[in-house]
Design a protein that fits this description.
The protein is an alpha+beta fold. It is built from 18 helices and 47 strands. It is 20% helix and 27% strand.
């Protein structure tokens, strides 16, 4: 007789019942093994192995050839949810199609990144969508909906949002703590995650490497307190790679890995990404935690249940019912057209004095280090198709009308004995792009050793030297290959592009004696010339001292072609693997010096010079001397064609800046200052004059705005207005709706995006644009009472083409909830619920939950709490503190009370004691508290 079908195999049953049945059949050891990223098969039940995690930020990454779309920040610049949804759909279709032929391709995709682009020097700026939480959530929601698919039960892929929470720095990223006050937490950092999760197409999140308020994100109490309350779906929380071990190894938050693993699991981490494919260490740690009583089987069950919920939704157990099981769309004409459309829509015209679009027949000089490049980043797939700006302009204007100068310095490196570095020919060696074969972990890809190392001879090889800033160089051979160092230490011309987790294609020229040491940055070792070839030396004593012979300066080549052209297009920007990437923040907004020199040379030779920035982040450039400036992120496989079509006027640009472009480094806050309110950061609070504001972007058309109408309903506010294309070409416009509280009781944004819409209008055509948003979108987090509050009073409703280009406005007075004083006489004060602060940081009250406040760097800090109601009167205060130092208090602008301090040093930062002292107050007052030393203040109580 045929054995009965177990309930977990019955597609007629709800997923939850099927998960229950499967859970009942798994042993504790089998469930424990599921907690690692690479969950093994359970052959006795016919359950296949499963891997969490497939990078898919702007195309399927790491697994070989795939359609490559613009970087995420470029998708954010489109301000187009419909487009981004279609991109997500294409990416998920290709993931399914690729998995059909390669089981290494996963369906639990780790994207999108919804970290807010708070600071433009963040090395991973390219991965986010915007500095604004509303725009970020809108674009992220669109992408996840495309990734998920539209079947009511089964998901095409299962998206995981990165990186929870308040993560904007690579500098000390696994040990630094983001001090996030409650208003910033709720109004800024949580908001992008919340609105995306609530939209219903998110399968989980990934915690970030950093700490928030002194506690590692992999122990975040907000996973349970907030994240899992936003949806009824089971959310899978996947750790970032190596982060579980960091809890002990680098953060020293726990003494043992068993404690750390147990704490992360109890906090809500369900899948541990650690030690690559080797699950033995994580399994051993979980078993040890169970044996020590740090975990229960119920803790393991909760995590495994969430993983299985995702696997059922992906159709793993129902291949005959999975509507996506036979997906075959891969590199289709539709996907190629979509890649070009996305690249075109991502182009932002920042300035135009009339030189653009280029007239037919224009003689164009294309110059710059990125002019003939189609750069990829760490989270890109391998290109199937490739288009550079130079190729795009050749195709559009004809090779006879386009001249080119890359602008590299052409050099030879002379040894001490008078010979020169020489690249041996390698014509018989097959080409191969890095990562073309696919890899579960591309960080483990080795450099090529099938090519001959460099040697020396009497004439040498002329190399193209590019200075990417900060003294970091690449050297390229005439055949286009970059000098690189493989694991055997030899220097070869072997790389198609700089890349890899540790970039092996960058060097520094360090002055030494009468020449230079050529230091390889990946190993930190200098280059030497040995009998068997050129390689890195063991130490400086064996290093070769090189002389630099310059055959041609890049500026000279640029001047030559620029002077003979009608218009010069300078293509400048960054290589996504160098000086601003994962693990490395930028140090400045300025262009690298070599590129600034090329721009100046072009401008001096030809005033009709257009700057096209192709970059993963904003720059501070001198736009005043240029007739036109454009920006686009690295635009994927169709980047060059798209840029050329915009320059030629085949497409009117309509991208909009997703973040503020600051004019100077001095406008920036400290990289680790996460207080966007107190630090007056992003367009929401910045009070200076930006180079280009949030939402900015020009067009080849012009648009008129008219007939603003506004209305307040029971729970919503609505606006409508008419937009007319008053130009001579069809074009897209992006209408933007902002709000500003006119008489706020607390600092509020200068203006805040509520809604936007991108649409196309023919010349002379008009459309009526209407937005309706909930009144709750105008609320703020009231720290006095720990909840959202809509404040009554006047609100300016602003409509226009950017955050600063406001075309129409009106003011409405809204009813709301009046402010009420803090009932401190009854409930006391949580220290972190301050209104203003200086010289303090928020830290963890315990290792599992709660916040405390301490002076930064053991100095002096002050806290201000407004409108504290002491009722009929109090006579004493009780302060919950840990550490050493003093506390003083004052009412309004009055005198400070005598300092209180612990009588004996605390045993540790979490060993709290209560300080009791006299304090007399009645009625409503502002309260100031001053902290000195390393004291942690958690709570202030009042009595008497």
């Amino acid at each position: 007789m045929t054995a009965p079908t177990p309930p977990f195999r019955d597609p007629r049953l709800p997923f939850a019942k099927r998960v229950d049945d499967l859970m009942s059949r798994l042993t504790l050891d089998e469930k424990t093994a599921f907690l690692h990223q690479f969950a093994p098969a359970v052959e006795r039940l016919g359950i296949a192995a499963f891997r969490t995690g497939q990078e898919a930020l702007h195309g399927v990454a790491w697994m070989g050839p795939a359609t490559v779309f613009p970087q995420a920040v470029g998708l954010g610049a489109t301000w187009n949810e419909d487009l981004v949804r279609r991109v997500g759909e294409a990416v998920s279709r290709e993931a399914r199609a690729m998995r059909a032929r390669d089981e290494r391709v996963g369906l639990n995709v780790w994207s999108p990144t919804v970290n807010l682009l708070r600071h433009p020097l963040w090395g991973r700026n390219e991965e986010g969508y915007s500095e604004d939480p509303k725009l970020t959530s809108a674009i992220a929601t669109a992408y996840t909906r495309g990734l998920r698919g539209d079947d009511p039960a089964y998901w095409r892929t299962a998206p995981v949002l990165k990186h929870w929470l308040a993560h904007n720095n690579e500098t000390a990223r696994d040990t630094s703590s983001s001090s996030v006050r409650p208003r910033v937490l709720h109004e800024y950092d949580l908001r992008a995650f919340r609105e995306t999760v609530e939209a219903g197409a998110v399968a989980g999140v990934m915690p970030a490497y950093n700490l928030v308020n002194g506690r590692p994100n992999h122990l975040s109490p907000h996973l349970g307190r907030h994240l899992r309350t936003w949806t009824e779906e089971d959310l899978l929380v996947c750790s970032d790679a190596g982060a579980p071990s960091n809890l002990v190894d680098s953060e020293h938050y726990f003494d043992t890995h068993e404690e750390a693993t147990a704490a992360a699991l109890r906090a809500g981490v369900d899948s541990f990404t650690d030690h690559g494919t080797d699950s033995s260490k994580i399994v051993a740690r979980v078993r040890g935690a169970l044996a020590q009583g740090l975990l229960t089987e119920a803790d393991v069950d909760a995590a495994v249940r969430r993983q299985l919920s995702v696997r059922f939704r992906l159709g793993e157990f129902d291949p005959e019912h999975d509507p996506y099981a036979k997906e075959s769309h891969f590199d289709t004409p539709e996907h190629r057209a979509l890649a070009r459309e996305a690249a075109e829509q991502a182009v932002v015209l920042l300035k135009n004095d009339g030189v653009l679009p280029l007239a037919p027949g224009t003689r164009v000089a294309v110059v710059g280090l990125l002019a003939d490049e189609c750069k990829l980043d760490w989270y890109s797939g391998t290109l199937i198709h490739r288009s550079t700006p130079l190729e795009g302009l050749y195709e559009r204007f004809g090779a006879d009308r386009v001249s080119f100068a890359e602008g590299v310095d052409r050099v030879r490196l002379r040894t001490a004995d008078g010979t020169f570095l020489h690249v041996l020919p390698s014509d018989d060696v097959p080409d191969g792009a890095r990562g073309a074969e696919g890899a579960l972990d591309p960080a483990l890809l080795a450099g090529r050793t099938d090519l001959p190392p460099l040697t020396t001879d009497a004439t040498g090889t002329e190399l193209a030297l590019i200075d990417w800033g900060e003294g970091v160089l690449t050297l390229r051979a005439p055949d286009g290959r970059y000098l690189s160092v493989a694991e055997d230490g030899y220097v070869r011309a072997s790389a198609d592009q700089p890349g890899g987790w540790v970039v092996q294609e960058t060097f520094r020229l360090e002055p030494h004696e009468n020449g230079h040491l050529l230091r390889h940055t990946g190993t930190g070792r200098p280059v030497q010339v040995a009998a068997d070839g050129v390689k890195v030396a063991a130490d400086d004593a064996d290093a070769e001292v090189f002389g630099l012979t310059v055959a041609e300066r890049g500026e000279d080549a640029v001047r030559r072609v620029a002077s003979a052209a009608d218009v010069v297009v300078v293509i400048a920007g960054n290589d996504p693997h160098i000086n601003g990437r994962e693990t490395e923040d930028r140090t400045t907004l300025r262009l690298p010096g070599q590129q600034e020199r090329l721009l100046r040379a072009a401008r001096a030779a030809n005033p009709a010079t257009v700057l096209a920035l192709v970059s993963a982040y904003p720059y501070a450039v001198d736009a005043g001397t240029l007739p036109a400036v454009l920006w686009t992120a690295h635009g994927g496989q169709a980047a060059g064609t798209a840029l050329a079509r915009v320059l030629a006027g085949d497409v009117s640009p309509a991208g909009r800046l997703p973040q503020t472009w600051y004019a100077d480094d001095s406008d920036l806050p400290d990289l680790l200052d996460y207080d966007v309110i107190g630090g007056r950061q992003t367009y929401l609070y910045f009070e200076g004059t930006p180079l280009f504001p949030f939402g900015h972007g020009l067009s080849y058309a012009s648009f008129g705005y008219a007939d603003l109408a506004a209305e307040v309903g029971d729970q919503t506010v609505s606006v409508s207005f008419t937009v007319t294309n008053t130009g001579e070409v069809a074009a897209d416009e992006v209408a933007q709706f902002y709000v500003r509280a006119e008489a706020p009781s607390v600092p509020r944004p200068r203006r805040e995006l509520l809604a936007h819409r991108r649409f196309t209008l023919a010349p002379g055509a008009s459309t009526r644009v209407a937005f309706e948003v909930p009144l709750s979108a105008l609320a703020f987090w009231d720290v006095a009472h720990g909840r959202w509050r809509l404040e009554p009073g006047p609100y300016a409703l602003l409509v226009g083409a950017s955050s600063e280009d406001v075309r129409l406005s009106t003011t409405l007075t809204l009813d709301g909830e009046p402010a009420a004083p803090r009932p401190v006489g009854e409930r006391g004060l949580e220290a972190a619920d301050f209104d203003e602060h200086s010289g303090t940081q928020i830290v963890d009250r315990t290792k599992t939950a709660g916040d405390a406040v301490t002076p930064a760097a053991g100095g002096t800090g002050e806290l201000l709490y407004r409108s504290c109601d002491f009722g009929t009167g109090v006579t004493r205060t009780t302060l919950s503190v840990a550490g050493t130092g003093t506390v003083e208090m004052a009412l309004d602008g009055g005198a400070w009370t005598p300092a209180l301090s612990p009588s004996a040093p605390a045993a540790g930062p979490y060993d709290y004691t209560e300080l009791d002292g006299a304090f007399t107050a009645g009625g409503v007052h502002d309260l100031r508290i001053r902290l000195r030393g390393s004291l942690r203040l958690a709570h202030v109580g009042f009595s008497g």
